[in-house]
Amino acid sequence: MLRFQIIRILQLTAAILLAGRAWQHLFWDAPYEFIFSGETGFTQWFSDKFTAAMGWFYMIGVLFCFTLDSRDSKWGYVFVVYAASLLLLAQLYRVSNDSEIPTLLLYTSQFATPFIYYQLQFKKTGIGKIMNTLKLSLTLTLGAYAWYATGIYYGHKTAWIDGLNIVFGIGESGAAIVLYALAAFEIITILVLWVKPLQKIAFAAILFWGILLMIASVAIFFLEHPHWQSGIRSAWELLCLVPNAGLSYAIWKYVNEKKKEEDF
Predict the structure, then answer these.
(1) I need a surface site. Which of 32, 67, 68, 221 has the fewest CB within 10 A?
(2) Could you give the CA distance from residue 95 to residue 105 in angstroms, rounded to a whole number?
(3) Crossing angle for the helix pair 127-150 and 171-193, nearest 10 degrees?
């Protein structure tokens, strides 16, 4: 029963994530121009067409989430393909951001979600191993945000500093202090996540962090583009951030049910 519930959580999380990426690719853009060399008009045209095609690819993935089950083991590999495509997209975002390592890690929970769902639904991987993979994915994701928040090596992101300064009027130094505090919060959460008696606290912290991250992502975009289209533009980003909450909820569900069994 517990395994079935966690599969459903991962199924819904993967579907929402793929829907977000489909929305992005069909109506906006993605950095596929880094795959194709050259600055010609044809290259840009091909990149645009490829982006649209990937949008339909992700849309089909949403359907796969609700139509394929454990009986379709041969088709289950499609979710490995989706994980690989999301990993490629994360790498392209890293390339577009001066090849900064934390940029790739920010997307760990996203490209891990379809793979974890495949492991649970189609490979029948032990639930204990899956929990370790979930925690590792969240650790890398939070670790990347903490890395940027500390400003180590790459410095603080200008958009983050400006956003905090505009919203709270605390100046650059005040915004930097807030980022240091967030970094400390994220690092503590990572450590707590691996301490079994405290995992429920980690779940609550990650959920709070995820909601804060969603609000911040929309707020920063509105600050840069203050008009109604910003809401449509940023909505897909919210869907793509759902894995942070989905994976943490799956961990909480597992820990909570196992605790009941031990108490019983």
Answers:
(1) 67
(2) 13
(3) 160
